[in-house]
Amino acid sequence: MYHIDIKVGESIGELELGMTRDEVEIITQELPSSIHHNFSYYGNRLREIELVNGRNILAVLAGYDIELFRTTVEELVPKLSEIAPCVKDPDYMDGTLFNFPQLGLKLWREDNMTLNDLKDEKYTALDKDEFEYYREKLYFDTVLIYPRDVTK
User: Fold this and answer.
1) Model pTM?
2) How far apart are CA 103 and CA 125, in angstroms?
3) 54-58: long-range contacts at Cβ-Cβ below 8 A with a sequence spacing of 24 or more?
4) What are the residues facing 54 on neighbouring strands?
5) What's the confidence (pLDDT) of residue 84?
6) Positive/negative CA dihedral, 140, 146, 148, 149
7) pLDDT at 139
8) What are the residues facing 57 on neighbouring strands?
9) Angstrom distance (rounded) from CA 44 to CA 57
10) 73-100 pLDDT tens trace
11) For the chain, which residues score pLDDT lower than 50?
């Protein structure tokens, strides 16, 4: 398990918002090949960092000891909502994107799956591997950080 501290609005591991492309490249070359990021730049400076859940990552929200990829969406969103309000994006299906502007944090998943959904016979009748595939949809697929919106 690869441990990564996430400092909302600041950094994911050693990658910090504001770094240059060259600085980002040096750091990413030293990371295990199983760790995947997506980057957005403003000019030559890192503006957003997205970490993809490879299921081998222990991504911990620094200062809160909350595991972002190993806590179900149904448990995680209320915990984060106690820290800062969540803003819904009308362009995404409900339950797939959660944005916390005061933290500079977005969490995304492809499908809106709940624990109650998995109790349905269409899922309980599946073999173990197929069921596990759907169970993984209870968790987020990506974590993205960006500069905090301190005005909200």
Assistant:
1) 0.91
2) 40
3) 55/136, 56/1, 56/2, 57/1, 57/2, 57/4, 58/1, 58/2, 58/3, 58/4
4) none
5) 96
6) negative
7) 96
8) 2
9) 28
10) 999 999 999 999 999 877 776 889 999 9
11) 152
**Structure confidence at residue 149 (pLDDT):** 78
Tokens 């209320």: give the residue: 78
Long-range contacts formed by 80-86: CB under 8 A, 24+ apart:
80/105, 80/107, 85/152
Structure token pair of residue 18: 């504001």
User: What is the chain's length?
Assistant: 152
| Closest of 26, 16, 25, 8 to residue 47, by C-alpha | 16
Please give the order of strands across the beta sheet that includes 105-108. 36-42, 45-52, 142-145, 105-108, 97-100
Question: And the tokens for 141?
Answer: 């697929």
